[in-house]
Amino acid sequence: MHTAHAGALAYRPDIDGMRALAVIAVIVFHAWPTWFAGGFVGVDIFFVISGFLITSILISQLEKGTFSIADFYVRRIRRIFPALTVVMLATLAFGWVILLRGEFQQIGKHAVAGTLFVSNLVLWNEAGYFDNDGITKPFLHLWSLGVEEQFYILWPLILWLVFSRKLRFLWVAGVIFVISMSANVLLVTDHPVAAFFSPLTRFWELMAGGVVAYLHLHHPQRFERHGTALSLGGALLLGLAFWLTNAQSVFPGWWAMLPVGGACMLILAGKNALLNRLVLGRRLPVAIGLISYPLYLWHWPLLSYGHIIYGQKPPIVVKLVLVGAGFVLAYLTYRLVEIPLRERRDRSRTTWSLGLGMVAIAVLGLTISTSLLRERIDTHGAEPYLAALNDSQFPGPTLAPMRYDGVVFQKAVSRGPGLTVFLGDSVVQQYGPRIEHAVASDPARFSSVIFATAGGCPPIEHTVRLPQFRFPLCPKTVKAAYALANSPEVDTVVVGAAWYGYFNAGQHELLYEKGAVKKTFPAADAQELAYESLRASMANLRKNGKRVFLVLQPPSGSAFDPQSMYTGSRFGAIAPVPKVPMFDLADYRQRNAAPLARLTAIAADTGAIVIEPAQFMCKDNVCPVLDETGSPLYTDTIHMRPAYSRRAASFLDPTMLRAPAGPNAVTQPLPTALVKPPPAG
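The structure corresponding to this sequence follows.
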C-alpha cells in the first residue's frame, strides 16, 4: 500500500515523515479504536502520497519521452510484491497452525482476493470496515492496496493519452476528480459500505495527489513561498481530521476532504517548510516512514490473530507487544527483503520470480478455500465451542444507517404502522437478528424499527462511561437516542441494557455527571442518581404518549461463555470439557435482586411494561447454555449468537405491534410465537 518509489524525484524526507504519521495513526486506531477514533483517516493520507509520487514519476517520464507501460508495472511489482509475499505467506502459515476449518477457508478466499488486488470488492460484499467480524479477517487491510492498484491500472494509460493527444492535464484530472467525488458524496449516506470500499468513490483521493504532483513539478516556487502557511494549515486540517472523524462520521463523504486537503497542503509546502523541516523531516519519523509499507502489512494480521486467539479483545499489554512485533518484523522485512531485491541488477528475473510467487500464493489460497489443504488443529469435538467465539451480527444486512442529531443509528423499514425505537447498549444490539427477521418475515404487520444504541453506553442520561477517551460518543449518543425516542413519529420505545453489570458493587467505570454534581460508581448516591435519571427519562417518554418497554438483562455469566466449555489452546490441541453445566436462574436472580427490584419499581412508577428475557429463555429456574446440537447459545458471557437471537428473542415481537399504552400496564403476558422461528444454525 502507498508504495510509490520516488527514484525519479528529488528525495523528500518529509514525505517519509508523512507516511510515518499515517501508518501510526492507522495502527493506533486498529489497536485502540475507541481511544483514537479518527486514526483510520491515515489511509486517506496514504492515498494522497501515493497519487503524488506515482504521478510525479509518470509525468516526468512522459515529458522526457522515457515512459514505458511495461516498465511502470515492473516497478510496481518490484515495489509491492516482496513485502506482500512475505507477509501473506507468514499469515497463511500461522493461520494453518491456529485457525479452525471455517476460518481457514475464509483466509484462503481472502488470500486469493489479495493476490488479485480485489480485496476491497470482496469485503464490499461481505461486511463493513467497522463491523464486528472485521477484526477476525487477517487480510482485511489489503482493501486499500486493492483500491490503489485498480487506480494504477487506468491512470498510466490516461496520462499517456493526455500527453500523446496534448490534452490539458488539469482539465482531465479535474473531470476524474469531480466524477469520483460526486459518486462518493452521493453514495456515502445510503450506501456507506459501497462508498468506503468502491474504487470509484476513492479515486479522487489519489487524483488529488496527482494534481499536487503536477502543480509541484511545474509551479513549485508559487507554493513554496507560502510554505509555512501551507504547512501549518495542512497540520491543522489533519489535526481536525483525527479529532473530528470517527465511526459515526459519514465517511468518506465530505469528511475525507480534511485528511486529503491536509496532506495536499503539506506536500505543496515543500520540504523546507516549517513543520516539514522541523517535525516530519526528523530522523525518527523518516525512519518509520521508510518501513511504513511493511509495517502496514504486518500490523493488522498480528492484531487480528491476537483477537482470534483470545476470542475477545486482547489485553492492552498483549496489544502493545503485537504492535511492537509489527515494528520489528517491518524493519526485518525492509532490511532483509525489500532492499536486497531492490538492489538486484537482474530486474527481469527478479520480476518474473516475484510474479510467480504471487501466483503461487493465489493457488495456495484456492486450495485452502476449497479445503484441498486442511487446517492443522485438532479440536477433538470442541469445534462448536470455538466456532461460537466472535459470532455476532450487528448491524445485520437489512439494517440501514440513518443519522439523527449527528449520530448514526440503524433502521429497518417495514410497511406496518408505527415506529419502534430500541435504546441501549450491545445487549440490545444482540436482538438485532430477531428484529430483522421479524420485520422481513411480515413487513406489513410489524412496525419500522430504529436501533438508537451504542456498545458499552448505558441508556441513562447524565451517566458517563469511563474512561471517557475510550467511550467519547456515549453522552452524545444517549442524548440523541432519547431525543429521537421523544419525537412525534415514534410510538413505542424499548429500553434495555446490561443493567446488572452497571448497577454492581464492582462497577468503577461509570460517572454520574449533571451540572456541578459528579458522583462515581459504585457509590450508592451515584447509583441512586442514575436510577432517578432513568426513571425521569422513562416518565418523560410516557408523558409524550409513548408506549415504553423496559427489558431486563437476560441471563448471563461464565456458564454461557464458550471459552469455559473447552480446555487447551489453538497452539496445541483442544478438547471439550467433560460436562457443560446448565445455568442456575434462581442464583442469578438472587445475586442481582437489588437492581432487579429497583428497575421493576421504576417501570411500575412510570407505567412501563417489563420484559424479563429469562421468563422466556429458561424453565424451572434452569437456563440452557447449549442448543439441541450441542453448540453454545452465546458468543461470550452475555451476548447471544445471531441464530439464537432469531429464535429466542420472540419476546420482543409485541414491541413492534401497535397497541394502546395502558397507564397501569406494568406487566402483561407476551406471546412467544408471533413469527415463525427461523431454523437453527
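The first strand starts at residue 400 and ends at 404.
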